[in-house]
Amino acid sequence: MTQHGQDEHFPQPERRLRLGVVGGGQGSFIGKVHARGARLSNRWDVVAGALSSRPEVARASGREWLLAEDRIYSDYREMAEREAARADGIDAVAITTPNNSHHAIAVAFMEQGIDIISDKPLTTNLPDALDLVRRQQETGLVFGVTYAYAAYAMVRQAREMVRSGALGALQQVHVEYFQEWALTPPKDAGAGAQWRIDPAVVGPAFTTGDIGTHCHHLGAFVCGRPVTRLRAEFHTLGPDKPLEDTAFMHVRYEGDIPGTIMISQVAAGTHCGIRLRVFGEKASLEWNQEEPELLHFRPFAEPARILTRGEGSGIGIHAARFVHMPRGHPEALSDAWGNLYEELAIAIEARRAGRAIPEGLLEYPTVLDGALGVRFVEAAAASSKAGGVWLDCTLA
Amino acid sequence: MTQHGQDEHFPQPERRLRLGVVGGGQGSFIGKVHARGARLSNRWDVVAGALSSRPEVARASGREWLLAEDRIYSDYREMAEREAARADGIDAVAITTPNNSHHAIAVAFMEQGIDIISDKPLTTNLPDALDLVRRQQETGLVFGVTYAYAAYAMVRQAREMVRSGALGALQQVHVEYFQEWALTPPKDAGAGAQWRIDPAVVGPAFTTGDIGTHCHHLGAFVCGRPVTRLRAEFHTLGPDKPLEDTAFMHVRYEGDIPGTIMISQVAAGTHCGIRLRVFGEKASLEWNQEEPELLHFRPFAEPARILTRGEGSGIGIHAARFVHMPRGHPEALSDAWGNLYEELAIAIEARRAGRAIPEGLLEYPTVLDGALGVRFVEAAAASSKAGGVWLDCTLA
Amino acid sequence: MTQHGQDEHFPQPERRLRLGVVGGGQGSFIGKVHARGARLSNRWDVVAGALSSRPEVARASGREWLLAEDRIYSDYREMAEREAARADGIDAVAITTPNNSHHAIAVAFMEQGIDIISDKPLTTNLPDALDLVRRQQETGLVFGVTYAYAAYAMVRQAREMVRSGALGALQQVHVEYFQEWALTPPKDAGAGAQWRIDPAVVGPAFTTGDIGTHCHHLGAFVCGRPVTRLRAEFHTLGPDKPLEDTAFMHVRYEGDIPGTIMISQVAAGTHCGIRLRVFGEKASLEWNQEEPELLHFRPFAEPARILTRGEGSGIGIHAARFVHMPRGHPEALSDAWGNLYEELAIAIEARRAGRAIPEGLLEYPTVLDGALGVRFVEAAAASSKAGGVWLDCTLA
Amino acid sequence: MTQHGQDEHFPQPERRLRLGVVGGGQGSFIGKVHARGARLSNRWDVVAGALSSRPEVARASGREWLLAEDRIYSDYREMAEREAARADGIDAVAITTPNNSHHAIAVAFMEQGIDIISDKPLTTNLPDALDLVRRQQETGLVFGVTYAYAAYAMVRQAREMVRSGALGALQQVHVEYFQEWALTPPKDAGAGAQWRIDPAVVGPAFTTGDIGTHCHHLGAFVCGRPVTRLRAEFHTLGPDKPLEDTAFMHVRYEGDIPGTIMISQVAAGTHCGIRLRVFGEKASLEWNQEEPELLHFRPFAEPARILTRGEGSGIGIHAARFVHMPRGHPEALSDAWGNLYEELAIAIEARRAGRAIPEGLLEYPTVLDGALGVRFVEAAAASSKAGGVWLDCTLA
């Protein structure tokens, strides 16, 4: 994918796509990360934004982003309408606001025929999520959900190795994600910390929605099979708050493969080490975001191997499409977001051109993945409330 | 402890103690490890053994160990009697046989007034374990159980830091131990692999008894508080066998502190990385046996620190007693076993001399720790069988 | 620097600067890296390019980069003239061609009043380098040289810690950079590999110019003092070629501080691990590009500490200006290039606005650093030729 | 070697050998390490000692070691004579005193027909070293020199891989050893620190003799070829002292293979990380004592591999002889010393029994390796004094 025009499915684009962003103003974080990925991919210009619903913040933030004055909005509905009316209106919108607004914003832009790139978790309840699934199916719009870790080159390589049988039959899968930031009492933390623990904004879970959904998606993505059941135990171990800040879960992947998910945002001394371990009858894989270029492949009764991004490293074609720099020149999270925005651009261009993309060529997370994540959050919260009973978490 | 005679509680010994070993003959493993630890400590001579119940193996093994011909036995009862009758008879016996023989062997030697050093798990059922506890209390004999990982210098340091409050109030505790060796089909593996999966020899669990007990002890030892409850899920993921080879557990430590234990002996590409993570409100600790000299101390919102064994590393007095070589000269499992046998020698000398050792000065695992381990195994097996219900696992 | 307009020296920019690129067409590598950095910084639009001197490659590459047709050039002189004549002409040019063309290209654009961003080594001989220094001093143009490793947040942090005295008086400094790619015979490698070993293109050295200059700059940058003398030993250990592929050097930093530089591009199994170790009387620092987020600070006789980018990590203000994402969200080489292009944008905006930037606020490498690098290459080659004699390598 | 009696060359021993130790009393360090290795091997009883030349220290130390009263000496000459006269006299002596006494002590015991195990550096000048070589050749006594790092299982594995051609033709070899302890001013450090910097005791070098000799031996041992030439630069960077505490060297191994040796004992934050890197045309090896169980094998343009001690790890027969515990049960320096003392026991038993051991089966360092080390120290000191000229360092 790094070389545009390399084959019929990846024709040379004629122009950069135009991206609008909702959320991301001063004091927020993830909106900027979206914009960095879009820029890095060289497939997007960020041209419009409702970066905040407070007009003065929206204006100041828009100027900081170097948006044109007439494309700085504070009302996303107005933005959807006015952008749709412009000849040079946005092709897609990135939704980077608190969770409970995702649904309404997505609907507003979908109704204008604008493709959607939404942050996760997709919504705060399953009906909203399913509504977005239905709308996407009816409109045929592209709807990506930014589980960005799935766009690391070495995560793609891991998925390809599982699919190719390098591990043999899968036996167990463990995903963990520990952070420390929520040890800061909410009153001393920023606004971003406060809305994340407010049930009115995030629904039935804090940490499970915020980082548990990443674990849920990453395990399923690499294993190529969904989580079907779970039992969960929620804890509030850090400063007092109305929702959990820690959760331990037992899960089953399709085919009754057991696994665990362990998450906490009050784990002192930890930062962003989402870590995946997949064990098969012949070998295991380990990947940790804090060393994103390394994929540990450990065959039974043989020396361990360390695969890295780049030529001569034994990596497969899916990962190779994400190689921007030679082996050893370290890539990291910005590059992963760039990869994701590149894939989304390809999908959106193809849709606009009426071209079909063969199954499996693009692997960005979709609205369906987003809905599965919401289902996961709800099931986990319900299981914990019921004392840790096993609950189904499929969409069936 | 490295300097004998350093104070009143550690007087200069007048002689090496005499150790007998039951088990450990050709084809076995752990008996040799015991003997290496005893030798390394310079507090013991290994002088007698019933290294096998098969006379020819016992004889060949005894010669290999350079035992005197008249102190090579194949019947441990005969050994107990004859050694007790000698003026230069053994001071203690190391029991390194399969689990279901530990109780009878311990009883035989205790009845002769010989101190006991038993491998874990202590017994295959709780009544046997409690019987040993009772006998120890009645006789006052020293009864050590070789949870040797607790004798690593940096594990002692971890325990001391928890006790001193360096982590603040404890919040969560995770212990995992993954190995790969049981991926070899039992019929192709050695005898040591075969008895370990035989319920008649090991009781209700394979992996939970073999390595789960290590996790159970290590977490409780470092945290200074027992596991009070658990819920467990057993799996047999590798080659077919009558017992579990993998288990995931949720636990509670005294004070309702939550944690997890994850164990597997069919985890391809893993070896002996028992790993402990203790999180408190102020900081966390991490230790992994495969890097035994490093203790990671990670305060909230500060740089992580790496403590190492030796002077100038900020370690406390308990760990310092186990420093045999200057910082950076790597010590490992042999040294840990040496530490354990050194502590046991001190305890046995004190008992024989009628000296009391102040509370907390020695920290070797006792018969009570062994009984708690058996309780843990039984509770885990019962919980798993009942679908993962919470069960008490104290001795109360 | 991440927050535009944060103080008087970093006013909010009114527009993105316009960047032209010379070199970087299909088959080349570093030009794309420049462009990624420029885009990621959100301070630049890449609007023009002479990406190749071969018209058809220039055209195809320009389209791939999504340049406007009328701003795709194959002759850099034409580009300099036509861009200078446009109202919306480029503000700066990035020179990413083989070494022997840097001087002429820089002159052509400087003559049009266009600011310069040149790759390293600056030129293939000292007179050319000094000519550029003189021209820069005469014109006052911004002239940055892309020693991009100096723009990693943790390298800035290292420099700040040395300056603040955290290490005490410096005692020794070691820099190494090992790569493996030149083990591929030149005839089987790409064009980029072939010109790098051609004395007509690169001057008196291959590896010393290509990666030795990075070591030379990084050590001096972090220590805050130049290399004054060196003795070098060149080797050609890999496939036959007219220049060295390996060099070992002893150096002196200002103040007679000894150090070494070790470089090789035929070191099997190595990639991009440029590694710096600075030892002072009180502590040492270690940084390695393959783990760019970690700065190891190791005080004498205390636990080692690991500093990381982000809040709560004890990092200073210079590094903090380069923090784009919270601690633990890994940044890497793309982000470093983004940092460098951000600093260059600030410098160029200030020059254009006639604003003075206080000494020390910006730390991007300048034409003087570039000239020092050329001097270093020449001195190393001469020393090696003369059997390893000590030679001065200052510009005095 | 772990299984005695495994073949004709390793017959089952009939008894433990008897070891005497000179040096090692209270306040010293390395003598205790010798004794730990001897004990761990189960091939030796430590039965006699002149642990100090000060009678009261000798007596206290001897009791601490649990030596019999009549075998505690303060005069090594008396010890040599009286032990030689006993029916149960020592078989070998371990010389663990300051350097300048090694020669006289070795001579005293060789004259009594006692085998020698000497610490390094062998002597303080070449004539003394060559005298010991000559005496060994005349007497046929076993004379081991305790370069113990060469007895790590993974170092043996490295040597075997080089010999087998796994790296292809060797191209460059780098050994470094950094420690921090000599940052403590000598007056504040122990006696062991003071004699090491006294030219009257150690000859022309401090650090080069103390740890440089380890680097010199390790590189030559693994590469299977001697260092033939060197140029050295000595520095005294730490507290004032009459000898160097830091040295950088360029070397040549037989066949004109270039390399470097970098050593310092005033490198803040470092401990015992002697690190070896061997690069060949096809692959490289890296080993570091602070992770002694890991051997990094990195083929060109393939994933890196991590070999570990133990079955199923792809290790060869030489290393396998040193496997005492299953893969993953960490072994370290005590085990390496145990390995070395085991090999020495085999050699001494064979000599006493008149059995020849086939070439290459035992690989313990000999008096010739010791003499090469002394030559290395002298050549390095002379080269540095002469401004870094190249000097031969063979015994030819």
TrEMBL record, chains A, B, C, D:
GO MF assignments: nucleotide binding; oxidoreductase activity
Assigned keywords, A-Z: Oxidoreductase
Keyword hit for Oxidoreductase: yes
Domain of life: Bacteria
Domain annotation Gfo/Idh/MocA-like oxidoreductase N-terminal: ranges: 18-147
Residue ranges constituting the GFO/IDH/MocA-like oxidoreductase domain according to the UniProt record: 155-286
Keyword Plastid in record: no
Protein name per its UniProtKB record: Putative dehydrogenase
Upper taxonomic lineage: Bacteria, Pseudomonadati, Pseudomonadota, Alphaproteobacteria, Hyphomicrobiales
